[in-house]
Amino acid sequence: MGEELARQLREFSLIELIAVLAAIAYLVLAIRQNILCWFFALVSTAIYIGLFIDARLYMESFLNVFYFGMAVY
Question: pTM above the 0.70 mark?
Fold first, then answer.
């Protein structure tokens, strides 16, 4: 199991890692009620939109467009 996890982690691209870290930063900042959380929401959702379109996951892309709009609002 540990080998499989290590293999999957090696397959992450840099942009995917940035999106995950931005999403985690959003969560932590939202819990702390820090206004900067919305910046990280914009970053992570923008990256996920591109990743999901590239993977042809159009409904996931649309969902992230909605999240992006909510972060802007």
Answer: yes
